[in-house]
Design a protein that fits this description.
Layout: E1 7-13, E2 17-22, H1 56-72, E3 79-82, H2 94-108, E4 113-118, H3 126-134, E5 137-141, H4 147-153, H5 162-169, E6 177-181, E7 183-185, E8 190-191, H6 195-208, E9 212-216, E10 228-229, H7 232-238, H8 240-244, E11 249-252
Parallel strand pairs: 2-3, 3-4, 4-5, 5-6, 6-9, 9-11
Antiparallel strand pairs: 1-2, 7-8, 7-10
């Protein structure tokens, strides 16, 4: 399982280029309202040893120090990316941290984008949505089109409703990135290429009209065993109807050794 410092990297991201990560969750634990079968951070139950969330002041201090160091070393950063060990919007100071990050970006690395990788479960909260509208890349996850299918792949906390998420995402009026992980699992009876998954997911994409769709597959060790990745060619074939309709789709497969 992966555990990250508050500010980590930069690392190369398949989707975002050279990415400086920000983890708004515990450095030695995991807090998330999803428990995805493919999460590189492991199961939630295995990340309960540390529950301390970094404060806005700590994030600001650590990020400023890192950006100043990277500037001195002439290291280029494509994206300052909120990801880390769970769902970043669960940090109660998320809106303040976003404001601080944008100010530091503007001062120290103005060409970098600010990106947030989120499972979209808290977009309906006004202050969370407002914060997300300020970043360059609000990257929102929907892996499956129904609550039953989401339960198989994402194992959300009680109260999740995919339709509420879709309605909340409509607030962006298309100015967001839709992110989807495609995989196959016999044990969990989930296959992104099945009509029940793929056609329903494409209908959601058509409804939301995001400015970009990121489709990817598993690339690192997963907590659930026996998961199968798809090739870029397979995923491109799956989403071809949307490509033909003019959607901007980025397909990323597993990195080959």
């Amino acid at each position: 399982m992966i555990r990250e410092e508050t500010v980590f990297g930069p690392i190369f991201s398949r989707r975002l280029g050279t990415s400086l990560g920000i983890n708004l969750l515990p450095q030695k634990g995991k807090i998330c309202n999803f428990d995805c079968i493919y999460c590189e951070c492991g199961w939630n139950k295995d990340g309960r040893g540390d529950t301390q969330l970094p404060s806005a002041s700590k994030v600001r201090k650590d990020l400023e120090q890192m950006l100043e160091k990277l500037c001195q070393q002439d290291v280029h950063v494509d994206s300052i990316t909120f990801s880390g060990d769970g769902e970043p919007t669960l940090n109660p100071e998320f809106p303040t941290i976003i404001d601080d990050t944008i100010a530091l970006r503007n001062r120290l690395t103005p060409n970098a984008k600010v990106s947030v990788l989120s499972n979209a479960t808290r977009v309906h909260i006004p202050e969370i949505f407002k914060a997300l509208t300020k970043v360059d890349n609000p990257i929102m996850k929907i892996d499956a089109p129904t609550n039953e299918l989401v339960e198989r792949i994402n194992k959300p906390a009680p109260g999740y409703d995919v339709r509420r998420v879709v309605e909340s995402l409509k607030q962006f009026k298309g100015n967001f990135v839709l992110q989807t992980c495609m995989l196959r699992s016999k044990e969990y009876n989930f296959d992104s290429s099945r009509p029940e998954v793929l056609e329903g997911w494409m209908e959601i994409a058509r409804e939301l009209k995001p400015r970009q769709i990121m489709v990817y597959t598993i690339d690192r060790p997963t907590p659930a065993q026996g998961l199968e990745a798809f090739s870029p060619e397979e995923m491109t074939r799956f989403v071809k109807p949307l490509i033909d309709e003019g959607f901007n789709i980025q397909v990323k497969g597993a990195v080959q050794p």
